[in-house]
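Interim report to the steering committee. The following record documents the input for YqzE family protein (66 residues).
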Amino acid sequence: MAKNSGEDLLKEITEKVVTYMSTPKELRDKHQEVQYKETWKTKWFGMLPMAMDMLFKRTAHKDKGT
């Protein structure tokens, strides 16, 4: 069974690579831009702003409940 699932995985990866390679570069670039637009905070500071937001929201929520 493990051999079969490995073959299925290899087949799926191969299909994705072939699809990617057969797509024109302009369409791939356009699709990638639409898929993920990085905010300036993330671009300059990485995941730190999101982590700080999560931390402050969690502590504010705990303070209100107590």
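The chain has a mean pLDDT of 78. The committee is asked to note this result when reviewing the revised timeline.
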